[in-house]
Amino acid sequence: MSAAVPNLVFLLDTPNVWRGRALAGTPARVLALAEHSHQAGAAVTVVLCDRGAEYGTEQDWPFDVALVHPSDFYAPATLARVLGTDAADFLVLCEAEALVAMGRELAGLLDARLVYDMHDDDAAVAASVGEPQETVQTHERTQRTALRTADNVIVSTRNEQAMAATAGIPAPRTALLPNGADPYQRRCWGPEVDAATLVFVGNLYYQPNARAVDAIAATIWPTLRAGGLDVRMRIVGRGPALLARGGQGIEFTGRVDTISHALKGTTIALAPLTAGSGAKMKVLDYLAAGLPVLGTREAVTGLPTEHPGVIVEDDLYMWPARIAALLRDPAALDQIGRAGRRCIEQELPWQRIGAGLVRHCRWWLATFRPGAKPAVDNHCAGVPRWLTEHADQDALGAPETTEPGQPRWLRQTTVVPDGR
């Protein structure tokens, strides 16, 4: 492919998409990088693993999308036939386990450079939720292997950038591309003071988000209610029935068509995160909506140092008092919300981040040739953390429109020649 038009193939296995939109952080990042690098001039194809979601039609996708059966998604030879053997300059994977298991083989079949989008630190997530040390160490080993296997690395925070450097990845082969938000797609509602409505957004099958909801229900909300504060709580996102039960002023919306409209009519956005890793898409969505945010230090990971738009408080027992004080100060709510929106517009728009990815890809194509990589023991890759988490909670759908060897193109502008 021409360096003037780099060709990117993204692989994404998730049940958390709906008609071209992401319902969780990882797919939100992947689809945003795909969309905005496409807008910046790259040719883009996303390969989705069929998990039985509502994938929509061609009109829902701004780039080429192939939907494949799970048995094909992890089969390099089959994927190469779906895509065509000269389909990519760059093959981008965001899961260390998938990259180690089949990334190098598939990149070779496509004659592509292998890119690890290290958007999260699964070892840190596992440690933060108290998983066994053996599990944490397994994630650490897999992440190190993925870093050393890839030709190039994308990171979203300084922490991941340091991890890449520690693993011996030369700085010129690493691109820091933070998470962002699209100020044109995310309407700036601002805080609706009279609504007195708090909001939390998250995929509740993800343990750090589930813990945050537990903290709201068990620590923050009862104190607010006991203090006689007339306030409502809205929790947005898919989740297990046992967790997502409403009552006592807490509304669980489940899946929504758009995050932007789910934030309309709210006053303060909450991010009481005590576990996790990486930059938080929910916080960026809050800021784009012009909402003042109350969060922990974990919640502001990946934001500019001054985290405009976010008030940081790690002691969750102090949150009711913080919330009550903010609700009594409409001017402060408006000022904080405007600062967050400015941060998105000036520092973290996806348009700039997508253009940065294209710029790095062009430079990598012009500067580096794919080097020989050591053999990878792909039998020890393990299973992605999210996949185990969703399977344990019966949150994975079954393929409905694909069969092994029978992919479905949701949108296709490049025809793959027969026999490839």
UniProtKB/TrEMBL annotation:
Protein name listed in UniProt: Glycosyltransferase involved in cell wall biosynthesis
Glycosyltransferase subfamily 4-like N-terminal domain sequence ranges: 25-180
Gene3D superfamilies tied to this protein: Glycogen Phosphorylase B (3.40.50.2000)
Start and end residues of each stretch annotated as Disordered: 396-420
Molecular function terms from GO: glycosyltransferase activity
Keyword terms: Glycosyltransferase, Transferase
UniProt biased composition (Polar residues): 411-420
Pfam families in the record: Glyco_trans_1_4 (PF13692), Glyco_trans_4_4 (PF13579)
